[in-house]
Amino acid sequence: MGAEGKRVFYGADDNASGTATILSVSAVFDSLRQAGVKTRRSMLFVLFSGEEGGLLGSSYFVYNSPIPLPQLVGDLNVDMVGRVDDAHRKKPDYCYLLTNKEGQKLRQIAEQANAQSVKLAINEGGYDTVSDPEQFFYRSDHYNFAKKGVPALFFTNGSHIDYHKITDTADRINYEALAKRATLVFQTAWVLANQDER
Predict the structure, then answer these.
(1) Distance (Å, whole) CA 67 – CA 3
(2) What is the domain-level CATH number for residue 183?
(3) Is 198 inside any structural domain?
(4) Selection from 105, 91, 101, 82 nearest residue 188 by Cα
(5) Torsion-angle region of 154 (φ positive above 0: left; ψ -120 to 50: alpha; else: beta)
(6) How far apart are CA 28 and CA 131, in angstroms?
(7) Beta bridge partners of 154
(8) Treating both helix axes as pointing N-terminal to C-terminal, what angle do 175-193 and 18-34 enclose, rounded to 10 degrees?
(9) How confident is the model over 46-68, as pLDDT tens digits?
(10) What is the mean predicted confidence (pLDDT) over 178-184?
(11) Which of 56, 62, 130, 162 could join 50 in a cystine, given CB atoms 3.0 to 4.6 angstroms apart?
(12) How many beta carbons lie within 10 A of that of residue 137, not counting itself?
């Protein structure tokens, strides 16, 4: 996340966990492609900077996209997927999926992929786009895509005591939960990239 004087904000969960997930998922797709296993649709893996400063990187992207936005089938955003929030301390096998009305099909695809793979507990209520007091849906890079009409789905573990603190360090990551969420992201992307219809 950066430094403030001598204080280092490591950002292990926010958002090294999401960055590592995207890099890992893209590496798996690349390995499959090299082995001759290709998806039916093209995929674009993008890492944005400037999220904390106002979603700057993703804002620049949507206004300067190398691909016309109407051609994008969806945006899968991964931000903070390496920790466990207080509500799941005893049951860490979960993931919050946040979307709006336009992204409900993406959520259904993720739920289908989840049921066929890692079987994480997925939020039914709370963390929705309208009534969430923290307004999480509006605070990460997928929101710029959603504003432009691109269906968007946000994968996250929710907040925790070390959010935006110097204590957000690698030793506090739950690597088993992180691996399962990364698998869910991969499986969702796989289904999305191989569907018969947009």
Answers:
(1) 35
(2) 3.40.630.10
(3) no
(4) 105
(5) beta
(6) 36
(7) 77, 98
(8) 50
(9) 999 999 899 999 999 999 999 99
(10) 98
(11) 56
(12) 21
d(CA 185, CA 179): 10
Domain assignment of residue 164, yes or no: yes
Q: What angle do CA 9, 88, 169 make, to 5 degrees?
A: 15
Q: How many structural domains is the chain composed of?
A: 1
Q: How would you class 179 by CB atoms within 10 Å of its CB: exposed for 0-12, middle for 13-18, buried for 19 or more?
A: middle
**Best CA proximity match to 140, nearest among 65, 66, 71, 51:** 51
Phi-psi bin for 50: left (phi > 0), alpha (psi -120 to 50), beta?
A: left
Using CA atoms, how far apart are residues 98 and 152, in angstroms rounded to an integer?
A: 9
What is the domain range of residue 177?
Answer: 2-193
| Contact between residue 148 and residue 58 where contact means Cβ atoms under 8 Å apart | no
Quick check: is 19 in a domain? yes
CA atoms of 90 and 118, how far apart (whole Å): 17
Residue 173 maps to a domain: yes
For residues 102 and 158, the answer to whether their CB atoms sit within 8 Å is no
